[in-house]
Design goal:
alpha+beta; Arc Repressor Mutant, subunit A; 3-stranded antiparallel sheet; two-stranded antiparallel ribbon; 6 helices; 5 strands; about 15% strand
């Protein structure tokens, strides 16, 4: 497989990118998108489960990032029921599942960096 971009520009869903790295980072980049995908890689989760697993993320940010991941086709939102209380479950699409090997490589690399240059801690205090 060729790892170089095959042309000067890439177009996806009406957006033009200077290279495939730019395209990929638009889809999964930022502070929270990859983290959300990581938490969904082993199965579907409700919003409240994601919030518990990521206490540092605000409700607004989680909601916005889930909507963005859904619009990018990486996450599927399934609604059960027609009137409150309804159940909403998020899961990876097949396209989202194709990113799991990248998530696993990022996790492995992050663990290596933490072991070599940092430390693992159980609580965060500023």
């Amino acid at each position: 497989m060729d790892t170089e971009c095959r042309s000067d520009y890439v177009k996806l869903k009406g957006n033009v990118y200077p290279c495939t790295v730019s395209l990929a980072m638009d889809l999964v980049g930022g502070k929270w998108k990859a983290v959300i995908l990581y938490h969904l890689k082993d199965g579907n989760k409700r919003y409240s489960e994601l919030r518990r697993e990521m206490p540092a993320i605000t409700e607004m940010t989680l909601s916005l990032q889930l909507k963005k991941l859904e619009s990018n086709g990486l996450v599927y939102r399934k609604v059960y029921g027609k009137k409150p209380p309804i159940k909403v479950v998020y899961e990876l699409t097949d396209f989202g599942k194709s990113f799991v090997p990248v998530l696993e490589a990022i996790t492995k690399w992050g663990n290596q960096v933490a072991c070599t240059n940092g430390e693992f801690i159980n609580e965060f205090s500023s």
